[in-house]
Every structure is written in structure tokens, then in C-alpha cells.
């Protein structure tokens, strides 16, 4: 018999884990739909905003708030909602969040003013923050057998990725047939099914020893996360400026204060002792790194297709469907492979495969580079897809059952933070490379030359105002400079994926394959138990 940390244990009769029944699998299906919806809502607003602008006439600042406030508040409330589920019940929080999401969606669908739409999007963000931490914690309690839990996490991860892929497609179809508010009505059948079937299919679970929710810690967590994410987004959008930098610093200061308070409380909002669990802290680090790379590289790849290849957003979405489908298939294969092979080996190999894909992206050229880009992205998606679903599984399976909600919120929060960091940092690297390489012809007026030198989007706009050879020269230079920026970002991502492979191998080599993981009812091991052990979840009915 093999222990969690990889040492040989005393021979013992094999333990039989309680296996999930049809009720748990149906409950998983019901919970996958809200998961998909949260990512659809995150992406569909980019397509909807032009229609909203025509109808409601928001200012440029209001447009930014309409787009961003949903993601801001999801990130800000994840930790709070995950811990709240541990205290009062994850099923209760999930159903309450589903009802709130449905109500806020109806408010957004029939909004008659910009302010109402912004408020509705804010409420959607708060409600959305209840969903994924609660669902991850509930999966922890519903699927006790490691093999079944791995399969369930693969299905759940598929729904998460499907939301990203289907968001633009579904949004485009809805906007083509109905008014812009119709995209929010997708929540009605999804959340309606959750509210009707959830009470019968989903078991309740919570931490029976949890204390009261510390409201001051909730406030500190918001003051830490919201300014930090806001600062990152603004730096990505407008470059270096005093206000975003102040927001970043303020967020970091409040984060320090928040962490100090958590270390002093008997019942903290965030139990810092969770980070002492080796498998959990390693998985969170990997989740941060993969989100960082996929967020930044995804942005640069999408911009290349639109700005360099000149493809429409619909065409871009269609081309990316193929690597996205590959990502979904591989994402479901990874848990199956880890039934026989240790996760460390699977994730190390997957990370190195993704690194190869990034090497291919360093060879993309500004002319005839479409095939190279798609091949490179396909390879990256194959490697990244194996990492994506496995990290939440490792986080949840290594967490004490009473802390499952908090762990689920951490898994989601580092993903949100990783995407924000990737878009900001890798976006800034790409932008800096572009600005250092672009050459603006002297015939272009000074103001227009400044605009063209800032970004490829600016250069594309200036080209429409300039006639003759200078326009063609500027466009060629801008495309070449942006492609060089893409190559530079890809090179940075090669090193990140190699580092990710090292983290996976070093941090997870003590974790056995799913087939050898300890199960509920297993007799005591010879080795001393430690915080790396995979605990069993005990639902509270």
C-alpha cells in the first residue's frame, strides 16, 4: 500500500470508498450549468456593449464600469462567500446565490438606464461569487472516491471551459435574433433548474465548528482585492499612471493588514494554515501560473488575429473553436490518466508540452503567420488543459473537509488574479516591445504619430486617415512590431511553463495516483499523518 507522501505503508486490507450514486451525478450536471453561465456572463458583455451604447448612451467611463464591475466583484467576494458557505452551509449559499443571480439577470435584461445596468452587473458579480466556491466544496463532499472525484472535476472543468468557448457564440446568436437584454435571460432556465432540482439532488455540508463571520475581515479583503484588480486593469488599458499605481499600492497595504488580522483570529475569514498543506499550496501556485500565461497569451493571440490578420471577432471565435475543443477533450483525459500515473508526472509533462507550443509561437511572423499561430496555440491548449482541471482537484482533495468552501474560494480567486496579472504584465511587455519597434513615417502628423506609436489599434485607426505609401508603410511596421511583441511574450511564457513543470514535479511528487490515494475507512498508516493527507468529506445533513 502507498501513503499520500509516497512512502510504503503497512500492508492492510484494501478500503472501499463510498461511491457516488445517480443522485450525485445528476447534482453535478445541475451545478455545471451555473458554472458555465458565470463564464458566459464574463465574456458576453464585450459583444453586448455596442448595442447597449446605442440604446442607453453610456459615457466612456460608464461603459468601462458596465464591462468591469462584474469581474471586480466576483474577485472581491470569492473569499467571503467561500468561508460563508463553510459557516452556514454551502448548499444554502449556492441556492441563495442562484436566486440572487436570477433576479439580477432579470434586472439587467430590462434595464432602462445605464445606472440600473451597472447596479445589476454589480449584483451579478456578488451573486456569481457564491457559485464556484460552493460548487467546488459540494463536489468535495459528494464524490468521496478519488477516481470519481477526478472524473467529476473533469466534467466540472469542461463546463467552465465550455462557458469561455460558447460565450461569444451564444451571445452572437442571441444578439442577432433578439434585443441586447436577451443575453441575460439565459440565467432564467439555468438558475431555475438549480433552484428546482438542487434541494433534492445536492446534500448540505458545512463546518460544524465554524465561528462567526468577521465583518471587519470581509471589509479588509475587499479593500485589498478591489483596488489591486482595478489598478491592474487600468495599467493594462492605459499604461503607467498615478491613480492605478496608488490603487495597486493601497491594495497591497490592505492585503498585509488583512493577513495580519487572519493570523490573530481564532476563526479567521481565511485560514492561513491551509497554505501549510504542501499539495494545496503547490496546486494554488500552479493555478496562478497557468491563469497568468493563458490570460496574457490569449489576449496577445486574439489581438494578433484581429489586428495583424485582419479577421473579424466572429471569425476569430470560429478559428479558436478547434483548439478549444482539443482543450476540453484533453481536460477530461488528464484525470483519467492520473488514475494510474502520479499527478506530478502528468502535470510536469503537460507543462513541458505547453512550453513547446510557446516556442512555436515565438516563430509567428507578421505575414502568413496564421497557421503557425493556430498550431502553437493548439499545442499550448493541449498542455494547459491538463493543468487546468487538475489544480482544483488537488486543492479540494488535499483540504480538510470543514475548510472546503474556503479552499474552493482560494482556487477561484487565484485564477481570477492570475488572469488579471497575465493580461497586465504580459500585455505591458507586448506593448513595450511594440513601442520600441514601431516606425512611424515622417509624413504622418505629430498627433497621429503619437497615437500610432502607442498601440497597433491606434496605428490601425491612423492608417485610415493617411493616404498613399505612408499608410502602407505604417501598417506594415505596426504589424511587424506587434508580432515581435507577441514573440517576446511567448518567449516569457516558455520560461513560465518550464518553471511550472518544476513546481509540479517538486511540489506534488509525494501525491500518489488517484488509484492509490487514501480513501475514507482506510486503516491507519505506518507513516505519521501530516497536513498533506487527502481528507475525506463528511456532509452534514
Automatic annotation (TrEMBL):
Q: Where is this region: Disordered?
A: 519-541
User: Which positions fall inside the Major facilitator superfamily (MFS) profile domain?
Assistant: 27-511
- Topology class, membrane: Multi-pass membrane protein
Native species:
Plantactinospora alkalitolerans
Question: Per its record, how is this protein called by name?
Answer: MFS transporter
Annotated transmembrane regions: 25-49, 69-86, 93-112, 118-139, 151-171, 177-201, 213-233, 239-259, 280-304, 316-337, 344-364, 370-395, 407-429, 488-508
Which Pfam families does UniProt cross-reference here? MFS_1
- State its location(s): Cell membrane
KW Cell membrane (keyword) present: yes
The UniProt keywords, alphabetically, are: Cell membrane, Membrane, Transmembrane, Transmembrane helix, Transport
